[in-house]
Amino acid sequence: MGRDFPPMKALALSLPLLLAGCGSGHEASQSAEPPAVDLPVTTASPAASMDGATASGTVEADDRAQLVARASGTIRAAGLYDGQPVRRGQILATIDARQAEAAVRRARAGLDAALAEQHDARGDVARDAPLAQSGALATDAYRKEQLRNDAAVAGVAQAQAALATAQADRSYTSIVSPIDGVVVSRQIHDGDMVMPGSPLVTVESRGRLLFRFAAPQASLGLFAPGSTVPVLLDGREDRPVTGRVRGVVPSADPATRRYTVEVVLPADSGIMPGMFGRVRLPSVGDQGNSGSAVSVPAAAVADRGGLTGVFVVGKDQRVTFRWVRLGDPVGDRVVVTSGLSTGERILARVDPTVRDGARLADGAAR
Fold this sequence. Notes:
By secondary structure, the protein is an alpha+beta fold. The protein is built from three helices and 23 strands. It has a six-stranded antiparallel β-barrel with strand order 3-12-15-14-13-16. A four-stranded antiparallel sheet has the order 2-17-22-21, with no helix packed on it. β18 (302-304) and β19 (307-313) form a beta hairpin. The radius of gyration is 41 Å and the shape is elongated.
C-alpha cells in the first residue's frame, strides 16, 4: 500500500497544473472580441396589417404610339395585321403617292408663275424709276408699279411655302413605326381612303411594362419611388411578380379620390399588356404592444445556422442574434410576426461578417 502513495501524489500535483492550463485557455477564448460592427441601426415599427383590401390594375406598355395620316390618298397595307412584330423604322403602310406627287407639281408650277410675275414687276419698276424721278411718268402710275412688285414678292413667298408643304406631305406617304414593338390595333385596310388626321395603326413597345393601379391617400406612404411591390396577376397568383414603384401620379381622380401608382415590372415573356392584376393595400394600425407584428427592412433579416433572425442592439451597444418568425413582405420591408417588439433597435442591414455579441463601432449610425 505504501508503494501506491507516490503515484497518487504525482497525480495530485499534476491536477492543478492541468486545471491551470484549462483555465488559461478559457480566459483566452473569452477575451477574443468579435469585430466591431459599423452598420446602420433602425427601430422596429408597427407592421402594416393587411385588411384584405386590394387595388386592381392593368399591365400597360410604357411606350405606345398611335400613328395618324398626315396626307390624303389611298392606303396600301396588304401585309399589315394585328399582333405583327415590327422594328423601329419599318414601313407599315403607304399612302398612294400619286396625289401627293400631283400636289408637288401644282405647287412647283405656282412657284414658277409667281417668280415670273415677280421678275416682270421688278423689271417695270427698274425701267420706270428714272422716268418717275424726272417727272416724265406720273407718280400714281409709278406707285402702282411698286405695289405690283411688292405683291409679286409676297406671291413668291406664298408659293414657296405651298411647295414646301406639298413636299412634306409627300414624305408622309410612308407610315413608319417609331419604336420596336407589336401592332396592337390597325384602323385601316388595304385600299381605304384616308385624310389627314385619320387614325391608322397603334404600336406598343415590349421593352418596358408597367402595372398601373389606383391607391387611396392613406396608403401612398407605402409606395415610395424605388420600393418593391408584389403584384398578383390573374392566373399567376402562386407566382407574385415583384415590381419596383416608379412613382405616383400627383393628381387624384376627382370621383374616387385615388392616386395612380406606376410599378415597373421585370422582364418576363409571360407578362403582356392588358393583363389584370391586384396589389394588396396595407393600412397601418395601432400595434404598439409586444404581441403585435412589427415591420423591419428586408435587408435586416439574416440567416445563421439555418435560423432566420435579426441582430438586436442592446443597451450595452452589443448585438445579439435573435430568431424571429417572418410574415409577408410589404414593399421593401418584411413583417415579423413573433420574436420582436415595437421600438426595439436592430441592425438595419447585415452582412456575413456580423458576429453575435459584437459591439457597435463608435461611428455606426444609431
